[in-house]
Amino acid sequence: MSDPSLLATTPPSININLLISVLLVFVGLTNYINHRYLKLPNAIGIMGLSAVISLFVKWLYSYDFIHFDTLNFVKNIDFKSILLDGVLGYLLFASAIHVNVSALKRWWKQISLLATVGVFISAFFIGAITYYSFGWLGFNIPFIYCLLFGALISPTDPIAALAVLNSTNAPEDIKIKLTGESLFNDGSGIVMFIAVLGLTVGIEQSALDFTKNFIVEVSGAVTIGLITGYISSALIKRSTDFGVISILSLSAASISYLLANHFHFSAPISTVIAGLFIGINGDKIFTKDNKDEFNNLWEMIDNLLNSMLFALIGLEVVLIEFSPQLIILGIISFVAVIIGRYLSVLASLCWFFNKTNQGTIPLLTWGGIRGGISLALALSIPANGEFYHLILGITVITVLMSGIVQGLTLKHVINYYSVEQPNNGILAKLLQSVDLLMFFKKRKVLAAKLEEAKLRAVNEKHLNAMTQKITKEVNKMCAHDIEENSDIVSAQAILNKDKDEHKDVKKMTSAEKQELNNTIDKVQEDKF
Asked: Do the beta carbons of residue 80 and residue 380 sit within 8 Å?
């Protein structure tokens, strides 16, 4: 299993009451300003305003206008421990209990590939793009550190993704794929991050060992999650007091996370499984009133912790010493993340093109928002390590740009790809774009027209004139695109006219009919 001791640990030296008070003030102030004036999605508004306010307070302190040292305050916040060892489990549990499990089952193959293979592919491409881009600009950074950045930035953040998706009218399949992927890809990202971090300090790991560790971490997490979810569900079912139910559900979220951490399994996956198990059995274990109260409780917990988390992300901006070079590298990193995300989604879903809706790949690409998990992983790199400040700087810029740029434009991207009905797939579209498919359609249409001419012809005297007219229409249709059926209507009008003109002609003899049929068959044979 991956060694979590590689992650840097900084015991929090800040007064917890002071931290909570400052966060609540930030959350209250930013929520009010955003709701009253900006009207942005809460996650984006809180994060952006927190960043602006913290930088402004830092500037005031530098000129002795105030005596609150924002930089020192934020340095003493152990963001990694607060997120990875604290609130993340409750946030994931709150998200998991509300997931549409039947929809999750429907798309489980795509979600599984996106959450595993997709993360590894994304990390590699992001690492490669940043390595060559930075090198071209004269910043010679070893590939292993670019890959480390790719590993920590590849997992999409479930909290950020859900916060933005809930404020849009995204198609249901996009919501469930993004939600499902973001709930499960943390395990893949953290395992890869620790493996690459080990390589930077000389701890090598073979591909076989990496695969074995990944399987052990995931399977162990699923087992703990199922056991915790089953026991908690059984106890909740036997309880009628909502106070007891509340404590049991909070215990399920915390115990599943702590046990998985203790055994070095994937704690996020363990908590998600426990939440999904309780959510699936909600109708069986809750009374109607208790279920409504249960949902309201976890919705309140979700909103409060989400707001505090995004306020913390905004505060972390003061740790960065911004320079023109760092900003340029951060923007390049953000572009690399988008490209890597697109390629990973494309590779993960290549087997499902015929089952995807229009715009699925661009929507999954643009909806893959980065958030607190990437920032926590960047802060967990040992501060005395090489390129620590660079990786932290481009991570903060990428997370901020991802939340603001992608978050603010996702609604417009969804509106652009508003067609939700399944298409014939990309391969079918490619076939339709070439003349091969149209050729077979032409043959079918023209054969039907000649057959109609055969049936409608009433006199051998007019056979040559009718054949010339049909032939003219055939040549015209073969020379132009016949996707529209206007030419068929034209041919039909000619045939109807000939029939009306000669409806009084005497009936042909059997020999004349046979000769007529032979002539038309010959015309048909020559044309096709």
From this structure: yes
Give 480-501 pLDDT, tens digit per residue: 544 444 544 454 555 555 555 4
Distance between CA 392 and CA 380 in Å, rounded?
10
> Which candidate, 353, 326, 89, places its Cα nearest to that of 224?
89
- CA 67 vs. chain centroid, Å, equals 44
Helix (H, G, I), strand (E, B) or coil at 31: helix
The torsion angles phi and psi of 228, rounded to 5 degrees, stand at: -65, -45
357 backbone dihedrals φ, ψ, rounded to 5° = -80, 165
Across 90-108, b (16+ Cβ under 10 Å) vs e yields bbbbbbbbebeeebbeebe
Round to whole Å and give the CA distance between 398 and 329. 10
Using CA atoms, how far apart are residues 259 and 72, in angstroms rounded to an integer? 33
Spatial contact of 162 and 179, defined as CB atoms under 8 Å apart: yes
* Spatial distance between the Cα atoms of 445 and 448, rounded to a whole number of angstroms: 5
Collect all residues with Cβ–Cβ distance below 8 Å to 455 and sequence separation of at least 6: none
Please, what is the average pLDDT of the chain?
A: 81
CA gap 179, 104 in Å, rounded: 9
Of the two residues 466 and 345, the one the predictor is more confident about is 345
